Amino acid sequence: xxxxxxxxxxxxxxxxxxxxxxxxxxxxxxxxxxxxxxxxxxxxxxxxxxxxxxxxxxxxxxxxxxxxxxxxxxxx
Amino acid sequence: xxxxxxxxxxxxxxxxxxxxxxxxxxxxxxxxxxxxxxxxxxxxxxxxxxxxxxxxxxxxxxxxxxxxxxxxxxxxxxxxxxxxxxxxxxxxxxxxxxxxxxxxxxxxxxxxxxxxxxxxxxxxxxxxxxxxxxxxxxxxxxxxxxxxxxxxxxxxxxxxxxxxxxxxxxxxxxxxxxxxxxxxxxxx
Lengths: 76, 188
Prior knowledge:
The structure holds two protein chains of two kinds. By secondary structure, chain A is an all-alpha fold. Chain A has helices at residues 5-16, 22-34, 36-55, 62-75. In chain A, helix 1 runs parallel beside helix 3 (36-55). The radius of gyration of chain A is 19 Å and the shape is elongated. By secondary structure, chain B is mostly helical. In chain B, 64% of the residues lie in helices and 0% in strands. Chain B contains eight helices and no strands. Chain B has helices spanning 14-30, 33-49, 60-81, 103-106, 116-134, 137-148, 153-160, 164-185. In chain B, helix 2 (33-49) crosses helix 3 (60-81), helix 5 packs across helix 8 and helix 6 (137-148) crosses helix 8.
């Protein structure tokens, strides 16, 4: 574990959402070459992103949910 | 030995606890977001009406899924009774480039394993929704806004009144928990 690990985890998350800067991406790449723990974490993190993409997740919006709650309370 | 009392239904929590899970189930089966939403709504109403029949043998969510399953079947049954709609529709040459593209060439390759992908992905989606439902509310909400709805960090922070640094801590906790949960439920 190095001092950079905490930051590496943070960059790894930002990278998943396309929010890591060019500089951060290179910092992480170099760090992953020397840190097995972060390399493992980063791999799993990317895997989770791919799983979520493959799964085509759907969710109701807050507005749809409150409309549902309203109808349910009327039916009750 | 004292008799265990049957668990009671809690309709007031249904939408928060199960709406997304039921919606994911419906949307992968009817492939129409609006119809899926209506089916989930009908399921809740039907659940409420038949609440006295709930014997407590199944978990609340399992019971609701059983109702939703009937709704999905009923939907297909209804659409199939309308004449002419039950036929298989084939898109001829939508991806082909003209002559020589025979229907046979569009048929599934019997040796391919790819056609299981859709089924597997639907199951994966349910596994992820299941794991999401175990997360604390705030983590599930932030993860969903970011990952499923693809909202920007700024928009989420504004909506929830949190700082970006705080958001990333929540995202970290949610993702770590999801990795652990999927490791148990999906990769085993």
